[in-house]
């Protein structure tokens, strides 16, 4: 029996030497290692031996099986390596193509700011895009006869009320949600309101009738101007980098008093002056102020106890600055050549 | 609005070290944004004074001259056609490279064989008038070589300010108001305006005739001052007056009209001069319904009884606060005028202005609520200047001044501690007082910590009413940059999480990242043409009153039109691609948001939709189903049962046999369909298109009401898999077959379709389906015989129910 095993081993090793490609390797496998191969037959024949011989040769046979299999695997591996080399595959060829989708850059901008403010304990609120004159203007301290209504060209809805007046409109700002939020949550309040707004103005590369704002409001006891400034600084630094500086100027918004414009140092030229900042070194980004007491009252909050700050900016403008986009109409264009870059 | 720096300097002495750029910057930082600084001399760049040294006929042209002019540094040869040229004249010479206001750029040229190195200019070519009779001959003051701007003394600097940013500051729409701000900002002395009202004693009372004025609409007219002036001689205004107006972009007309404009631009009060000849009486009244007036801009205007007019006893003379009428227009033959300085109710002027679509220099000022104190001041200023321009004029009536209710002064108590709380930093008491005083506020008394402040009349009409307004005054003068920023200390509170917003974000992430879709932001407005092409009924669509165009005049009720457009504009660049949008749609039905706080009326119903569109070559419908199924499983649970069932309510743009409703946990949330070929044709779409539109609000409700699902233990006993393949009539739906199989026996735990065939190898009207079936028990290893029996019964059951025919492999 032992001789038979040795002989099998010899034969295997001899044949192994002749193996130079996959075909001969496969033949070798068939001849010796397959289910009907020589080794199998040999193992099968062990059954016919008596118990002690079976134990003795069984072990030998098993060792042989392991040896042959190892040798086979070794050979297989060398063949594979040689084969790979011989085929000369170019590893710099591209991987499989997984198609990609793309976000609108406004979404990216909005997500970033939502994350910033939720980390500071702000709620993120939504409001109706089709609003009433009351919430969009009147409650925000812009009575019907106030010329400030002209500051915002408004789309009115052809759905008159019982007095045959047009009192519905596409919101011109996210601020009506300030009132709705105050009415719902009361004080203290910390919220941002991102969303779509509308102005009735002809579009060109710098004007768009549909655009996006993000508005923030903080109402608490003793909220003051220094706090407002601080929030604006945080926004600037988050958007344009840690060294960004803030400059505030007076600007009239009826729903705040005092009312301000916030400008940041131009992130492109670091305030030295360039094309983007029109050589002023500053970028006008944010409108802000301390919430007007009449607005607090409209929201059902007592201005003697609470005060508030509010700020808002255009996400389109932020995205245009951040990505150096020169045409505001691209955001709503659905042009893949634009979207594919984000 | 344009503001002349030279004009400002009449009222506040600005030291030379304060540069115009500094003035603009500081005004922007403390008062209002200066949008532009314009150098008046810029329009005369490269134009100098030259002297005619030689003058001879052009050898090749009868009407041209060859001129040599001395421009100090050099002598230029110029070909010139003017016939008023004389030796020794001083003339304006445009050098090579000059841009004339006419748009002409001067270049060296050869005219009929003779070189010309510049151009000698006529008045019209310099934008100074209409004269083109000959070249402009300069007076003795001209010095050879000096710039023409210098000769003209066009050394002004103009500040440009956007009127819109002054809607709360009626006091700043004029030079004196801005001079007041500059004096406050730089702490420079301001001349009192009384110094400019130099009328000889008794001038105003020199006549005894009374002017007949009747104020009928006293609620719309707060003050009406007027006076009659005789001996008027209409002529061109003197240079100083014309130049002042030209500097701020006002066209000079004649001495009277120019003076009314000048006074308005100086102190802010609009004035109107009527030709008094035909006027016996002035009545300030509401217009009659449909009353008409031909206004100075040559328009026939139809009025309503809400409009205020200045009328004679016969017909309206002017629309109050807006524009005069032609009947009483100042003409070259005017000899007597009635000068009006009035104060009208701002909201009424604004209403009329809006209704007529007419904005004038006067209405822009009136609608912002002017200081009623101004009328007499402006009248006196006009008379002062008129006496200077036309000393022969005579006052022909007593001064009429209707002013029944001078407004009460506004007094505000300013608590300094409160002020500090608002600012977040202490501003020294002295500084607070000083800042307010510099702006014209009067500090009446200073109790311990409370200032009693009186608001000056020019700030008291609308702008400054409450202590908060004073915070701004103090702060803006102090400088916003002086305040140290400081985050508030707030109570730590868990904010209410906006689950819907998070879900939106999750959906967008899944669609972009795992389904390779692109995010569209389409307009909320759609147009009839577009909807007609989609065969969408828009009779119930909400409309805009004032759309920008007819393609954007309706409020969308579906995201489909926008998505179709997304495909259309990209189909020439790409073949297989898709978009999604998650945005609002609007309906003509009451919604759930209140319209105001006084009633229960609500806004129209609005909800968010999720729309997905795919275009490309193959299997669009099923690819889209896969995308939706994957999305729903991702935002709910992997076990969520999303069904796509034959739809009943199919939109007109959808292919009837390939339209399914999307049903999740028994609730219909949307529709998925292939777009009809004819619709594709309507939009010139090249490839088939599939669309899904889901009601996001409903979907969100389902997501938020998901019951908690317990983990189910990993099965202890192996599943036994059997395949089954059969032929069945084509109209029998997979959905029904699957349902029948999975419900057949408790041991059947999973049914998975792995092949569908329909074609040549089968009879017409038949299809073949193949399923993997998994049998599994939770309490034992299943034996083959057991499984075989269930499968056998199943086949029998399917056979009975659907007449299936087994296939062999």
Helix and strand arrangement:
The complex is a heterodimer of chains A (342) and B (809).
Chain A: H1 2-18, H2 22-33, H3 38-45, H4 51-87, H5 105-119, E1 123-124, E2 130-132, H6 133-136, E3 168-170, H7 176-185, E4 189-198, E5 210-220, H8 225-240, E6 246-250, E7 256-265, E8 282-291, H9 293-298, E9 307-314, H10 315-323, H11 336-339
Parallel strand pairs in A: 1-4
Antiparallel strand pairs in A: 2-3, 4-5, 5-9, 6-7, 7-8, 8-9
Helix pairs in contact in A: 1-2, 1-4, 2-4, 5-10
Chain B: E1 2-4, H1 5-8, H2 20-30, E2 34-39, E3 47-57, E4 65-70, E5 75-80, E6 90-94, E7 109-111, E8 114-116, E9 119-120, H3 148-152, E10 157-161, H4 175-186, E11 213-215, E12 221-230, H5 239-247, H6 255-267, E13 271-275, E14 282-286, E15 292-294, E16 300-302, E17 308-311, E18 316-319, E19 323-324, E20 337-344, H7 346-356, H8 361-366, H9 374-389, E21 394-395, E22 400-402, E23 411-415, H10 416-423, H11 429-438, E24 442-446, E25 450-454, H12 467-478, H13 499-514, E26 518-519, E27 525-526, H14 528-533, E28 554-555, H15 560-570, E29 577-594, E30 602-615, H16 620-635, E31 642-646, E32 654-664, E33 667-675, H17 677-682, E34 689-695, H18 696-704, E35 720-729, H19 734-742, E36 748-757, E37 766-775, H20 784-802, E38 805-806
Parallel strand pairs in B: 11-14, 26-29
Antiparallel strand pairs in B: 1-10, 2-10, 3-4, 3-6, 4-5, 6-9, 7-8, 12-20, 12-21, 12-22, 13-20, 14-17, 15-16, 17-18, 18-19, 23-25, 24-25, 27-28, 29-30, 30-34, 31-32, 32-33, 33-34, 35-37, 35-38, 36-37
Helix pairs in contact in B: 5-6, 6-9, 11-12, 13-16
How would you describe this protein?
The complex is a heterodimer of chains A (342) and B (809). Chain A has 342 residues and is α+β, with helices and mostly antiparallel strands. Chain A has 2 domains: 2-87; 105-339, Bira Bifunctional Protein, Domain 2 (BirA Bifunctional Protein, domain 2, 2-Layer Sandwich), CATH 3.30.930.10. Chain A has 11 helices and 9 strands. Chain A has helices at 2-18, 22-33, 38-45, 51-87, 105-119, 133-136, 176-185, 225-240, 293-298, 315-323, 336-339; strands at 123-124, 130-132, 168-170, 189-198, 210-220, 246-250, 256-265, 282-291, 307-314. A 7-stranded mixed sheet of chain A has the order 1-4-5-9-8-7-6. In chain A, a hairpin with a 5-residue loop joins strand 6 (246-250) and strand 7. In chain A, helix 1 (2-18) runs antiparallel to helix 2, helix 2 runs antiparallel to helix 4 and helix 5 (105-119) packs across helix 10 (315-323). The longest helix of chain A has 37 residues, at 51-87. Chain A is elongated. The mean pLDDT of chain A is 89. Chain B folds into 6 domains: 2-33 and 162-191, no CATH class; 42-152, Nucleic acid-binding proteins (OB fold (Dihydrolipoamide Acetyltransferase, E2P)); 213-402, Phenylalanyl-tRNA Synthetase, Chain B, domain 3 (3-Layer(bba) Sandwich); 411-481, 2-Layer Sandwich (Phenylalanyl-tRNA Synthetase, Chain B, domain 1); 499-704, Bira Bifunctional Protein, Domain 2 (BirA Bifunctional Protein, domain 2, 2-Layer Sandwich), CATH 3.30.930; 720-806, Ferrodoxin-fold anticodon-binding domain (Alpha-Beta Plaits, 2-Layer Sandwich), CATH 3.30.70.380. In chain B, helix 5 crosses helix 6, helix 6 (255-267) crosses helix 9 and helix 11 packs across helix 12 (467-478). By secondary structure, chain B is α+β, with helices and mostly antiparallel strands. In chain B, the strands form 10 sheets. Chain B has a 7-stranded mixed sheet. A 5-stranded antiparallel sheet of chain B has the order 5-4-3-6-9. Helix content of chain B is 26%, strand content 27%. Chain B is built from 20 helices and 38 strands. In chain B, a hairpin with a 5-residue loop joins strand 15 (292-294) and strand 16 (300-302). The model of chain B has no long low-confidence stretch (mean pLDDT 93).
């Amino acid at each position: 029996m032992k001789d038979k095993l040795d002989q099998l081993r010899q034969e295997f090793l001899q044949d192994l030497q002749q193996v130079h490609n996959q075909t001969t390797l496969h033949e070798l496998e068939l001849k010796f290692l397959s289910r009907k191969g020589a080794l199998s037959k040999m193992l099968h024949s062990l059954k016919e031996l008596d118990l002690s011989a079976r134990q003795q040769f069984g072990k030998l046979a098993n060792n042989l099986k392991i040896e042959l299999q190892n040798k086979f695997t070794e050979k297989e591996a060398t063949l594979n390596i040689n084969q790979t080399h011989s085929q000369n595959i170019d590893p710099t060829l591209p991987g499989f193509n997984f198609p990609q989708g793309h976000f609108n850059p406004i979404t990216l901008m909005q997500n970033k700011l939502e994350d910033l403010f939720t980390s500071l304990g702000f709620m993120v609120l939504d409001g109706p895009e089709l609003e009433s004159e009351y919430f969009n203007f009147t409650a925000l301290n812009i009575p019907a006869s106030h010329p400030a209504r002209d500051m915002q060209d408004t789309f009115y809805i052809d759905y008159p009320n019982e007095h045959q007046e047009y009192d519905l409109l596409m919101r011109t700002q996210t601020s009506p949600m300030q009132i709705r939020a105050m009415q719902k949550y009361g004080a203290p309040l910390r919220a941002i309101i991102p969303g779509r707004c509308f102005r009735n103005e002809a579009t060109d590369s710098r004007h768009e009738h549909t655009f996006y704002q993000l508005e923030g409001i903080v109402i608490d006891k003793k909220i003051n101007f220094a706090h407002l400034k601080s929030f604006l600084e945080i926004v600037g630094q988050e958007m344009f980098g840690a060294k960004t500086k803030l400059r505030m100027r007076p600007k009239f918004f009826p729903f705040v008093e005092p009312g301000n414009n916030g400008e940041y140092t131009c992130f492109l030229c670091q305030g030295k002056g360039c094309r983007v900042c029109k050589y002023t070194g500053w970028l006008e980004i944010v409108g802000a102020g301390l919430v007007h007491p009449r607005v607090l009252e409209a929201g059902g909050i007592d201005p003697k106890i609470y005060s508030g700050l509010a700020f808002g900016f255009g996400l389109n403008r932020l995205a245009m600055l951040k990505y150096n986009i020169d045409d505001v109409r691209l955001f709503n264009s659905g042009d893949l050549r634009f979207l594919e870059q984000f | 609005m344009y503001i002349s720096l030279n004009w400002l300097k009449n009222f506040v002495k600005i030291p030379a070290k304060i540069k115009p750029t500094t003035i603009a910057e500081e005004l922007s930082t403390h008062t209002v944004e200066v949008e532009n600084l314009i150098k008046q001399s810029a329009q005369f760049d490269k134009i100098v004074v030259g002297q005619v040294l030689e003058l001879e006929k052009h050898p090749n042209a009868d009407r041209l001259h060859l001129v040599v002019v001395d421009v100090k540094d050099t002598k230029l040869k110029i070909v010139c056609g003017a016939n008023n040229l004389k030796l020794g004249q001083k003339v304006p010479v445009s050098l090579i490279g000059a841009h004339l206001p006419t748009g002409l750029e001067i270049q060296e040229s050869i005219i009929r064989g003779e070189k010309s190195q510049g151009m000698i200019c006529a008045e019209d070519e310099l934008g100074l008038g209409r004269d083109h009779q000959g070249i402009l001959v300069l007076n003795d003051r001209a010095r050879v070589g000096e710039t023409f701007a210098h000769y003209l003394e066009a050394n002004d600097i103009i500040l440009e300010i956007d009127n819109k940013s002054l809607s709360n500051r009626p006091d700043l729409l004029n030079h004196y108001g801005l001079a007041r701000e500059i004096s406050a900002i730089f702490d420079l002395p301001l001349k009192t305006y009384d110094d400019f009202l130099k009328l000889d004693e008794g001038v105003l009372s020199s006549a005894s005739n009374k002017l007949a004025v009747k104020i009928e609409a006293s609620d719309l007219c707060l003050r009406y001052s007027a006076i009659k002036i005789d001996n008027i001689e209409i002529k061109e205004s003197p240079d100083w007056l014309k130049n002042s107006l030209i500097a701020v972009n006002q066209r000079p007309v004649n001495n009277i009209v120019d003076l009314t404009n000048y006074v308005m631009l100086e102190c802010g009060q609009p004035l109107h001069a009527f030709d008094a000849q035909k006027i016996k009486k002035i009545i300030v009244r509401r217009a009659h319904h449909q009353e008409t007036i031909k206004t100075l801009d040559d328009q026939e205007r139809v009025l309503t009884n809400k409009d205020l007019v200045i009328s004679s006893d016969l017909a309206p003379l002017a629309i109050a606060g807006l524009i005069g009428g032609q009947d009483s227009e100042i003409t070259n033959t005017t000899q007597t005028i009635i000068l009006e300085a009035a104060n009208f109710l701002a909201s009424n002027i604004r209403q009329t202005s809006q209704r007529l679509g007419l904005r004038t220099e006067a209405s822009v000022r009136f609608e912002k609520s002017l200081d009623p104190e101004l009328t007499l001041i402006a009248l006196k200023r006009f008379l002062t200047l008129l006496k200077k321009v036309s000393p022969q004029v005579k006052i022909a009536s007593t001064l009429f001044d209707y002013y029944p209710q001078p407004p009460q002064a506004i007094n505000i108590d300013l608590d300094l501690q409160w002020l500090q709380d608002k600012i977040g930093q202490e501003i020294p008491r002295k500084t607070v007082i000083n800042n307010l005083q510099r702006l014209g506020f009067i500090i009446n008394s200073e109790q311990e910590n409370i200032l009693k402040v009186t608001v000056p009349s020019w700030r008291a009409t609308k702008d400054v009413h409450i202590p908060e307004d004073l915070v701004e005054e103090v702060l803006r003068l102090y400088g916003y940059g002086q305040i140290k920023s400081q985050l508030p200390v707030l109570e730590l509170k868990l904010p209410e999480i906006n689950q819907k917003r998070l879900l939106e974000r999750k959906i967008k992430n899944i669609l972009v990242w795992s389904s390779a879709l692109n995010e569209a932001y389409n307009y909320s407005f759609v147009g009839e043409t577009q909807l007609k092409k989609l065969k969408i009924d828009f009779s119930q669509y909400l409309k805009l009153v004032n759309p920008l165009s007819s393609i954007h005049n309706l409020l969308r009720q579906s995201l489909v039109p926008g998505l179709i457009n997304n495909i259309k504009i990209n189909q020439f660049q790409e073949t297989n691609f898709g978009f999604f949008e998650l945005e609002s749609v609007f309906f003509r039905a009451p919604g759930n948001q209140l319209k105001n706080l006084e009633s229960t009326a609500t806004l129209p119903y609005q909800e968010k939709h999720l729309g997905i569109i795919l275009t490309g070559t193959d299997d669009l419908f099923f690819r889209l189903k896969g995308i939706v199924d994957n999305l729903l499983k991702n935002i709910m649970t992997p076990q969520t049962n999303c069904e796509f069932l034959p739809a009943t309510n199919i939109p007109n743009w959808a292919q009837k046999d390939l339209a399914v409703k999307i049903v999740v946990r028994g609730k219909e949330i949307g529709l998925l369909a292939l777009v009809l070929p004819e619709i594709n044709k309507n939009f010139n779409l090249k490839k088939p298109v599939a669309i899904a539109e889901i009601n996001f609000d409903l979907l969100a409700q389902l997501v938020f009401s998901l019951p908690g699902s317990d983990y189910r233990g990993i099965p202890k006993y192996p599943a036994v898999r059997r395949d089954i393949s059969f032929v069945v009539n084509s109209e029998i739906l997979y959905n029904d077959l699957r349902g029948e199989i999975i419900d057949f026996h408790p041991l059947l735990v999973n049914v998975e379709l792995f092949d569908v065939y329909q074609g040549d190898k089968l009879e017409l009207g038949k299809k073949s389906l193949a399923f993997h079936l998994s049998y599994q028990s939770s309490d034992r290893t299943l034996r083959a015989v057991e499984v075989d029996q269930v499968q056998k019964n199943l086949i029998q059951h399917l056979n009975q129910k659907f007449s299936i025919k087994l296939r062999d492999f």
